[in-house]
Amino acid sequence: MFRTVAELVEIAEKENILISEVMIRQEMDVKNCTRDEVFADMEKNLEVMEQAIEDSLEGVESVTGLTGGDAVRIQTYMKEQTPLSGNLLLDAVSKAMGTNEVNAAMGTICATPTAGSAGCVPGTLFAVKNQLNPTREQMIRYLFTAGAFGFVVANNAFISGAAGGCQAEVGSAGAMASAAIVEMAGGTPQQSADAFAITLKNMLGLVCDPVAGLVEVPCVKRNAAGSSLAIVSADMALAGVTSRIPCDEVIGAMYRIGKQMPSSLRETGEGGLADTPTGRLLKEKIFGMSV
Amino acid sequence: MKYNSVFDIIGPVMIGPSSSHTAGAARIGLAARNFLGKEPKWARIHLYESFAKTYKGHGTDFALAGGLLGFETDDPRMSKALDIAKERGLEIEFVEDSAKVDHPNTARLMIGNEDENIELVGISIGGGKVEITELNGFELRLSGTHPAILIMHNDRFGAIASVTKILAKYEINIGHMEVNRKDVGKEALMVIEVDQNVDDAVLKELENADHIIQISKIVS
After folding, report:
1. Which of chain B's residues have a Cβ under 8 Å away from the Cβ of A286?
2. A151 contacts B127? CB cut-off 8 A
3. What InterPro entries does the record tag this protein with (chain B) (predicted)?
4. How would you label B16-53 residue by residue, b for 16+ Cβ within 10 Å and e otherwise?
């Protein structure tokens, strides 16, 4: 069983297999089940992700009215104008936000690694898909690659905002997506690790400060940040840019930073954006109580 | 390792909005229901730190209720669980507790019916994964997602061996096991996580093993 990204990359290189394959073999071993069973289970997750994106492009709105409709807004803009940041990037942003709009509206999603950060992995997958034309198997492998990196983070640091801030959620999710994009684009396991490290480095210190304690503001738009950064980092790694700080050390830094974060900035809805005049006003409006 | 499957990371499929506060809370509720072995009639739930501060926004309240009603994380009835609980005659009280706890997402559930009750502490560690850290005053560490056998026994030599011998005979593999006692020679709790659900015939035989007081099982 791999414990670190270094071990994960080493296994993949030594056996000349993909990161996704390392994860698949380990899962077969842990669960004592066949390759077909493991693939079938992951395909179910893929179907949920696909459905959530489809739902979001029909337009959804949360109960509070704080979020919803932005995924559609961006898709319309892409059709009518030429986005400055490019179609692929903005498509990923729209689909990532859409997934989280569905989540905020209490729709069905697949946590990757959490619900608050559920947009980054599927958002990038269904955007990159249009350019790379992957097979269904490659799309399922994308999720195993993302999962392999998330597995290391979850076991060595944390993946919840309450434990480590948003860097642990959207930071991890965006970084997982970067690593998966690299593999799908034909990069090496080490390039996946570099892309992961570059994304996570740029998410370090990000706090979890949801307005009114709801997974809406700023969570939906943070998935836009996570997914766009994921694509940029993947491109950087594929171009040969490496991370000066090794991946596992970046995860270690994320862990220590999270440990130093005060509770008010770890999903309590007490600090940061939640504690702005508008944030407090929204809370009062939603729950009908003063804060 | 806290997480051992890729599906802890990519998954679960769930009703939003939060994996820790909604999906994890539902799983803690479900674990409590499994320990009781039937649907509770009442529940008193203490919420701590992040759970206490944000449970309304995250739907932690309806998720805990959903778990107590036996709902899985992706049950479409989840957001209506508080109403459904009322219809089914399950009374739930939530308490925002300011006591200091080890994990920010902690819930203490006291649930029961006319005849029996249990008290359980669960933590939601991220991505929908939970751990049960206390049961009826005994500290333990249980995922709540594997089948398990809980054995109250007298703290005497041979009690554990007599149990494991029976499990070995039926070729039941132990995934995780721990033993806790309140004091030397007093009541103790054996917690055994296994890979497959255990037949009642095996439980019957375990009941007759040396120094055993009471046995219950959790199916998954």
Report:
1. 57
2. no
3. ACT-like_dom_sf, ACT_dom, ASB_dom_sf, Fe-S_L-Ser, Fe-S_L-Ser_bsu, Ser_deHydtase_bsu
4. bbbbbbbbbbbbbbbbbbbbbeeebbebbbbbbbbbbb
Using CA atoms, how far apart are residues B58 and B63, in angstroms rounded to an integer? Answer: 9
**CB-based contact A252:A201 (threshold 8 Å):** no
Question: DSSP class of residue A1?
Answer: -
- Record the tokens describing residue B8, joined without a space: 């802890």
Q: Does B14 touch chain A (CB under 8 A)?
A: yes
Q: Is B160 helix (H, G, I), strand (E, B) or coil?
A: helix
pLDDT at A83 over 90: yes
Residue A72 confidence class, pLDDT cut points 50, 70, 90: very high
CB contact under 8 A, B23 and A115: yes
Q: Which of A215, A275, A289 to mutate to test the interface with B (most CBs of B within 10 A)?
A: A215
Chain A to chain B, count of Cβ pairs less than 8 Å apart?
A: 179
Report H helices in chain B.
Answer: 6-9, 24-36, 49-58, 60-68, 81-87, 159-169, 200-207
Q: Measuring CA to CA, which residue among A117, A104, A121 is closest to residue A70?
A: A104
* Residue range B60-75: mean pLDDT, rounded: 95
Residue A20: count other Cβ atoms within 10 Å of its Cβ. Answer: 27
Q: What is the pLDDT of residues A44-56, one digit of tens each?
A: 999 999 999 999 9
pLDDT tens digits for range B113-158: 999 999 999 999 989 989 999 988 888 888 766 788 989 899 999 9
Provide the whole-model pTM: 0.89
Residue A89 tokens read as 């990037």
B79: which chain A residues are within 8 Å (Cβ-Cβ)? Answer: 106
Question: Which residues 16-75 on chain B approach chain A with CB closer than 8 angstroms?
Answer: 16-23, 49-50, 53-54, 56-59, 74
Tokens of A168: 């642990």
Q: Which of chain A's residues have a Cβ under 8 Å away from the Cβ of B54?
A: 210, 213-214, 267-269
Asked if the Cβ–Cβ distance from B10 to A147 is below 8 Å, we say: yes
Structure tokens at B36: 């009781």
Mean pLDDT of all residues in chain B? 91
Residue B127: which of A45, A104, A111 has the nearest Cβ? A111
Contact list, B22 vs chain A (CB under 8 Å): 115
Architecture of the domain delimited by A5-286 = Orthogonal Bundle (1.10)
Which tokens is A262 given? 């005060």
Q: Catalogue all structural domains in chain B, each as residue range(s) with its CATH number.
A: 6-142 (3.30.1330.90), 148-218 (3.30.70.260)
How far apart (Å, rounded) are the C-alpha atoms in residues A100 and A117? Answer: 7
The answer, for B126 touching chain A at a CB cutoff of 8 Å, is: yes
pLDDT of A284 higher than 70: yes
Tell me which chain B residue has its CA closest to the CA of residue A103: B16
Chain B residue with CA closest to A120: the answer is B10
Q: What is the mean pLDDT of chain A?
A: 96
